[in-house]
Design goal:
With 444 residues, this protein is an alpha+beta fold. It has three domains: 163 residues, no CATH class; 88 residues, Signal transduction histidine kinase, dimerisation/phosphotransfer (DHp) domain (Helix Hairpins, Orthogonal Bundle), CATH 1.10.287; 145 residues, Heat Shock Protein 90, CATH 3.30.565. Helices cover 52% and strands 18% of the residues. Strands 2-1-5-4-3 form a five-stranded antiparallel β-sheet, sandwiched between helices. Strand 4 and strand 5 form a beta hairpin. Helix 1 packs antiparallel against helix 3. The two termini are 58 Å apart.
């Protein structure tokens, strides 16, 4: 059973219970009113009957059928219980007479008859008057009311179910629209997002579902893009060194060669293997960062100590290149991942080493909210037209084609700084050098 039908059925059940309860209450209230009205008319008839008996001239003024009774039976007794007048077939039991002599009012039901007994004083004489009758009009009205109630209740059930179907269909219309839109989403258009044409204050549960689904699509799209980008990057970057290795090895195997040529071949294979390993490591790290950026463990760490440790590691591998450190030396604490930040700093320093031959300036500064690390080299720089693309994976500037590299360093830096909730800025002037600035929020 579909949701629409379940909602309609539940609405019908609730409506049936509520409507049924209301109709039952109405029926019993009406029944009580009809009976009470009949008793009042019998009481009035008793007053009329005693007047007709004790004062005959009243018949000309008030005829017997004044109170819409069908065939009343009347019994009038004296104060001592002696029968003075009887009209009709109903016989009043003696116990009723005895009861009325001791009380002012008497009401009783016997079979289909309703009997009212009252004391009346006329011309100084006390009379005990009993009037009995069948409330045939009232019974017919109640039977008609009962049938109308049952039929009306049955009709209300049908209308409730149809109304429930209609309104549940309208309520679920946005869900149908969402289903139709979702069916159009494939791996080729994961960038598509379900639309919400409402103000933020008017968002309902369906819109919250749409927002949640859009967030899920964003995560799925990011995963697809990461996987696709990794495959594309790997196939593009790994192909070149593998091809070079295969070509050198095949060339060396075509004939016997001097040992010097074998050494040259092995040297090329080693260089291409190192390039292949570096590229693979960079691609894997970039993929991991894009896949699990939110899961990176951030700890409290001292930036000054991290920078000193990184510069020491860089100088150990490149002792010939002078690195000048300036600025703060005291402890500056941030919330970050030490291993990732050291990788980012080493990538910037390696770029400065590869693309310049002069000194490298490193400065550490702070403002009210941030720690600022700047690395300045005085090398070939980056063309202004390519500066906005330099962070893209595998992109290399047009003036570095003769220098080995994979174009992954700054992409990794940018992603690492983003994972650590910081900002990465690059300014450069071709032929004069490049300045990379890392801004990380201070731990307050």
């Amino acid at each position: 059973m579909k949701i629409r039908q379940r909602l309609a059925l539940r609405f019908t059940i609730v409506s049936a219970l509520v409507t049924g309860a209301i109709l039952i209450i109405i029926y019993f209230f009406t029944r009580g009113f009809v009976h009470s009205d009949f008793v009042d008319r019998l009481t009035q008839q008793s007053s009329l009957e005693v007047l007709h008996y004790a004062t005959p001239q009243v018949k000309d003024i008030m005829p017997s059928g004044t109170f819409n009774l069908v065939n009343p039976s009347t019994s009038i007794f004296s104060e001592t219980g002696e029968l003075l007048h009887r009209q009709g077939d109903f016989i009043v039991p003696k116990t009723w007479i005895t009861f009325l002599r001791d009380n002012d009012l008497f009401n009783a039901e016997r079979g289909v008859y309703t009997t009212v007994g009252r004391k009346h004083v006329v011309n100084g004489h006390l009379y005990l008057v009993f009037v009995s009758d069948k409330d045939l009009p009232g019974e017919r009205e109640l039977i008609f009311l009962l049938k109308a109630t049952v039929v009306g209740w049955a009709i209300s059930l049908v209308l409730s179910y149809l109304t429930g179907l209609y309104f549940s269909g309208n309520a679920l219309q946005p869900v149908k629209r969402v289903v139709q839109e979702v069916n159009h989403i494939t791996h080729d258009n994961l960038s598509y997002r379900l639309k919400i044409d409402k103000e933020e204050s008017a968002i309902d549960e369906i819109d919250e579902l749409i927002l949640t689904f859009n967030a899920l699509l964003t995560r799925i799209e990011r995963a697809f893009i990461t996987q696709r980008r990794f495959v594309q990057n790997a196939s593009h970057e790994l192909k070149t060194p593998l091809t070079a290795i295969m070509a050198e090895v095949e060339l060396a195997l075509t004939r016997e060669r001097p040992s010097e040529e074998y050494q040259r071949t092995l040297q090329v294979v080693l260089q291409e293997t190192e390039r292949l390993a570096s590229t693979t490591q960079g691609l894997l790290l970039l993929a991991r960062l894009e896949e699990s950026a939110s899961k990176a463990e951030l700890d409290s760490l001292d930036v000054a100590e991290l920078l000193d440790r990184t510069l020491a590691a860089f100088s150990m591998h490149h002792p010939e290149r002078p690195v000048i450190k300036e600025g703060k030396t005291s402890s500056l604490y941030i919330q970050g991942n030490a291993q990732l930040l050291q990788t980012a700093l080493l990538n910037i320093l390696d770029n400065a080493y590869k693309y310049s031959s002069d000194k490298i300036n490193v400065s550490l500064a702070t403002n009210e909210k941030e720690v600022i690390i700047a690395v300045q080299d005085y090398g070939i720089g980056i063309p202004a037209s390519e500066l906005n693309r330099i962070r893209s994976p595998l992109f290399r500037a047009s003036n570095v084609s003769s220098i080995p590299g994979a174009g992954l360093g700054l992409s990794l830096v940018d992603r690492i700084i983003l994972v650590n909730h910081g900002r990465f800025e690059i300014t450069s002037e071709e032929g004069k050098g490049t300045k990379c600035v890392i801004r990380l929020p201070l731990l307050l």
